[in-house]
Amino acid sequence: MKKSMKLNLFVSIFFLFSFSGIAQINPQFNPIPASYNVNSPNPVYALDINYDNIDLNKQVFHLFLPDTTGNFPLVVFIHGGGYIGGTPDIVLAAVDRRLDIKYCLENGIAFASFGYRLINNIGPDTEGVIKCLNDAKRALQFVRYYANDLQIDPTKIALQGRSAGATTSYWLGTLPDMADPNATDPILQQSTRVCAVDLYGPQSTLDVYKWETQVFNNFDGNGTNYTLDSMENLMGFDRASNFYGGFDSISQILVDPALIQYRQDVDQLFYLSNDDPPLFISSQSLAVHPSQDLFHHSFHGREIHNTALAVGVSEVKADIPARSINTTNGESGIEFLVRYLNSCSITSSIPDIQVSENYIDIFPNPVVNQFTINGTLTLYQIDILDAAGKIMQTINNVENFHTIDISALPGGLYFVRVRDLSNYLLEVQKIIKL
């Protein structure tokens, strides 16, 4: 199955600094300005929270909360700019983004705006677009790891993006869970699965060869393809080369094994499958020829829409006027996300995987009413999660040979998530409650 393919490129080769020694963060929240006109009890926001320190100016996010107490579902916005421009600050000024923030906060949902490092547009770039994608991945995992400090429900996260940000959201939504259970950095052990994705002006895939062979194949109905050479001429060689971390000629992406793998690793159409989250697709470009709007042409939205339906994604809504597609029934992208956040619960643990060596034994298992933990450390933090990833019970300062009573829980499958007192994830074990 393609979902189980090993994604070597996504191992954090760019990760230079570990937050693993930090057990807590303390974002500084301020009251949301009255100009936002948010009808919520006590809305607050924090700016420029760093999720890594490779580039302290770019690897930041802004966070808006509907109140100062509680743990809230979250909509994540990722900005556009062709991966060479843009900042998360757009949510502070753009009217439509501020309206989305207002809508979320008034519905009890938090809102975040992710920044990321950009592809170099002056001189060479040896990493390319994967740098941008991996930054967004880490930001998502960072939010999950520090969910309590950020007042976020880590099981209820949805993604929203515009242009390049839509394509990044689409990448996060379609890739198999990129949690790395063996990572020494506990942030990278966190799940990347989300509840729903809202795409506005996305690219259908970041494998540009598929733009020639699939997206713009016979684009005029007369057998004409829009070729790689034409795309390179339109973008300019330097930008095209930097996109994949550097090449000598566009034809190299067809023969170089590393570039072939790179193209596959960023090919969302390849990874789309029926276990991916529901999609809302809006492609508003009315361009006819690909050169008129290469990155936002309606054919991109059409390809996502048709592929998602073909593979059986649970719900696909689309508004693509140039292709006479509108299945939204008047629902907006943000309304779509909020609807799913009200019912979705994606586990933020790593079920069915031993994260490292066995630290604990659980007995008996299956369990009638109580089980006992025995391990190698003195104290643990224990969460009991149901099969959907919802935390049903939390027990702090658990000692060895500690008996845990779950008699109040109904029978079924549960996960025991074990952390040490610095919040480092040790392992997850299944238990059956009879």
Please, what is the CATH homologous superfamily of the largest domain? Alpha/Beta hydrolase fold, catalytic domain
Number of separate strands:
17
Oligomeric state of the chains in view: single chain
Low-confidence stretches: 1-22, 348-357
CATH topology heading of the largest domain: Rossmann fold
Strand sequence of the main sheet, in spatial order?
1-2-3-5-4-6-7-8-9-10
Structural category: alpha/beta
Descriptive labels:
single chain; 434 residues; alpha/beta; Immunoglobulin-like; 4-stranded antiparallel sheet; 11 helices; disordered N terminus
Write the layout of secondary structure elements.
Layout: E1 30-31, E2 44-50, E3 60-65, E4 72-78, H1 95-106, E5 110-114, H2 129-145, H3 147-150, E6 152-162, H4 164-174, E7 197-200, H5 208-215, H6 228-235, H7 237-243, H8 257-265, H9 268-271, E8 279-282, H10 298-311, E9 316-320, E10 325-326, H11 333-341, E11 360-363, E12 370-375, E13 379-386, E14 391-399, E15 402-405, E16 412-419, E17 425-433
Parallel strand pairs: 4-5, 4-6, 6-7, 7-8, 8-9
Antiparallel strand pairs: 1-2, 2-3, 3-5, 9-10, 11-12, 12-15, 13-14, 13-16, 16-17
Structural overview:
The protein contains 11 helices and 17 strands. It is of the alpha/beta class. The protein has 2 domains: 348 residues, Rossmann fold, CATH 3.40.50.1820; 74 residues, Immunoglobulins (Immunoglobulin-like, Sandwich). A hairpin with a 4-residue loop joins β9 and β10. α2 packs across α4 and α6 packs across α7. The longest helix has 17 residues. The N terminus is likely disordered.
